[in-house]
Structure formats: C-alpha cells, structure tokens
Amino acid sequence: MRARVLVVDDKENVLSLLNSVLGESYDVTTAADGQRGLALALAGEFDVVLADIRMPGSDGFAILTELKRAQPDVEVVLMTAFGSVEKAVEAIKAGAYDYLTKPFEPDQALLTVGRAVERRRLRREARSLRAALDAAHSFEHLAGKAREMQQAFELMRRAAASNVTVLITGERGTGKELAARAIHRTGARRDSPFLVVSCAAVPDQVLASELFGHPSSPADPIAREQNSAVGTVLLDEIDELDPALQARLTRALQERATRDSEQPTADRTSSRVIASSSVDLKEAVGAGRFREDLFYRLNVLRIHLPPLRERKEDIPILALRFLDVYGKRYGHGAEGFEPDALSALMRYEWPGNVRELENAVERALAVVDAPRIPLEALPDEVRGVGTGGLSGLAQLTYHDAVELARDRASREYLITLMQQFGGSVTRAAERAGMERESLHRLLKRYGLRSNEFKDP
Fold first, then answer.
1. How many Å from the N-terminal Cα to the C-terminal Cα in the chain?
2. What is the SS3 string spanning 279-315?
3. Second label for 136, Cα 20 to 30 Å away, from 246, 323, 373, 387?
4. In what order do the strands lie in the sheet with 4-8?
5. Per-residue pLDDT band at 224 (split at 50, 70, 90)
C-alpha cells in the first residue's frame, strides 16, 4: 500500500510541481488554502503533510499545531521562502519533521518526503513491536510468542504448582537457569533459598559436599540446608556429573521418593530438585555416559527451551525487552532498531542463543545514544563483517538491500566529512549543502557525535 501525502499551498504552480514529483511514488492529495488543508488533514489518514508556512487563513503553523494535537504520529514538513529559515527552525522545535526552503529542487522534495514517510513507517513498526511485547506470553523474565515457548511456559506453570522433579533441557544460552528460577519464584517455595550447583565447574570432592554434605550427613541433596529452610536446588549441567556421584544422587532421589510417599505433604522437608542439561540425556544414556535410572528419576517433568534460531519471530520481542532493561541501567534508551539493524538481528543464527542477543543489545546501548539502534552498533559477527563487504546484499529484498547500502554509504560519508572539518558542524554543513539542524539529525540518527571528531 502506497503512503499518502497531503500538499497544502496557495500557489498553484507549487501544487502542480509537487503533485507531479511525488505522484509517482505516493498517493498525493492537494489543497489550495490552509483552511481546507487542515480539514483534509484532520479528516484523512495521511502519512505526511507538506504545508507552506505563509498562507491565508490557517497557515502552516496552525496546521502543524492542530494536527500534532489530533494525530501526533503524522509527519509534517513545512515549506518556507528563502530568508525565513528562522521560522522553519521554530517549526521543527514545535514538532515538524523537517522543512523545505523555496525554491527547492524536485529531488530535494522527494528525498525529504521519502525520509518523513520512512520515519512514519518506523514509528508504526516500533508501536507494533511494543504491542507484540505487551501481548507476548511470558513467564517471569522469559518471553516469546513461538509455539514451542508457549508449551514451555505452560509446563513451567504446572511445575511451579507442584513438587515434581523437573528436567530443563536446551542449548547453552537458552535460559535454563532463568526458567528454573522462575519456577522457584512462582511456586510455594518462593520465600526459601534457591541454590545453583554447577556440576561442570565444581570439583568432584566439593560437589559431593554440596550435594550430600559430610559423610555423617543424610544422603540428600543440599544437606547443608539441613531442612531448616526448604528451598530449590538447581543441578546445572547435570550431564557433567561424575559417574560415582550419579550413583549417589540416584540413591538419594530414590530414598526421597520413598520417604515423601510415606509422609503427608505438609510434613515434607526435602528441598526441591531441578536439573538442567545442554545435551540430550537419552543419547548420553545410550552412549554409556549417564545412568539410565538417574535419567528416569530426573525426567519426571521435562521442559525443553528451543534455540533462538528456531524461534526467530521472538527476536524482535526479546531485543526490545533488552533495550528497556539496559536503557534503564545506562540512563538512556532507544525506541527500536534501524531497519538494517533489525534485518541483521533476524538473519544471524545466534549460536549463543538468548544470552548472545542480550549481550549484543547491551553493547549497542553502551556505544551509541540514539533514538534507534543503527547497524554499526551491533557486533561484527551479527553485521556479517568480513563476508565480502556488500556481497551479502543478494540475500535481502531489493528494498532492504538498497536501504542497507544507503545507510552504510551515508554513515561513511558523515564520518569522513566530520573528520575533514575536525568536528565543526557549521563548516561540515556548509560543505554538505544542508542546514546545521539537518546535519545534527543525521549525526544523531547514525549514532555519531561531533565532539568525537574534534582535534585534541
């Protein structure tokens, strides 16, 4: 669907010119006076309104003020005669997207309106992503709308409502510990301790002490809690557990099952056990690396967290959530991602899963302070750097490829320009043939700061 543009000007030649120039790309409506233009703008659903500042009746400022009050998402571009630039700057402060100084070149008008249309599209996209984030089913700090994640959330709710032993599986970085903590926090033991025992990182002797206490202690996991505060223990990466300790754990779980079956629910004092594994335990059993009886003791309720590459529809939702989290931490946030940056996030395979995505978003917010995260703020591997420059463009749609190439060229031009003039925005704007305010907006869009280019 083509974007809709309203042009308001009391000069017939201006209306004719803009209708001809913009009509090839957009659905254009014209109005020959401000009062009619304002009525059309308020009654219609336009993406961009292009209005002259000085007109009989309702002038450009009146249209801007009324339209921003009624439809704040509509982008307004004002036109002004040469010598009235201060009025245009005042309009931008009042909420206009940009301005055109008469007389202007047709290409300049087409470029300005095109950018305004794109900004309108990005605002809609950001609002859609926010709505998706709000609507996405979640469980504590985990989020996702993919079918596999919905199944996992439902199993986690059931686990939280019972005392059953849980086995959480999934590749590294998929959020297994987060899932275990969520089950603990939403269950009856939420006020009791949550202990993570790493079966991969802790030496066997220390691990035995963590799980079973000293030889004189009861052979039950988390013996050091000693039933004084019944909580949850997460046996992280259970597949790395030493065979001898596997045997002891199997026996402890067997004794626990027997004891709990003989006691009323209210009298049970054993800590809850949740295990996690990043490998297929059934395959490990077949290969002789894991005890079959222990596997069945742990695999009472299995929850599988799929890798991020298999639920790419969740990438924008998760990325937006991380923007919110780290925006609060760093004291500055971003409303979303530039189109090429979001495309890169969606194309990347994420071998590190959700954890890697979180790190990428945190890094982006740490290095730029811009309304939208640009492609250049993402890690090299996510951007595909080192894969032949622009050779990867063929994997994109024509529109996305052109946008990506244009943004790369624009940013490189701005960097070279600012380096040439030592960070002077005034001199750089003169060379670029644009106003200072326009250059400032471009620098902000691409995450660049003029003081970074100033000579020491």
1. 50
2. CCHHHHHHCCCCCHHHHHHHCCEEEECCCHHHCHHHH
3. 373
4. 27-31, 4-8, 48-52, 75-81, 98-102
5. very low
Confidence tier at 455 by pLDDT (50, 70, 90): low
CATH of the domain at 358: 1.10.8.60
Average pLDDT of the chain? 81
Task: Judge contact between 199 and 240, C-beta under 8 A.
Answer: yes
Domain that holds residue 96: 4-134
Can you list the alpha helix ranges (DSSP code H) found in 161-242? 176-185, 204-212
Banded pLDDT at 447 (limits 50, 70, 90): low
Pairwise CA distance, residues 176 & 96, whole Å: 47
Distance CA 131, CA 111 (A): 30
> Does 64 lie in the same domain as 47?
yes
Shared domain check, 180 and 63? no
184's tokens: 């603990």
Query: For position 120, what pLDDT does the model report?
Result: 85
d(CA 58, CA 9): 11
Helix (H, G, I), strand (E, B) or coil at 209: helix
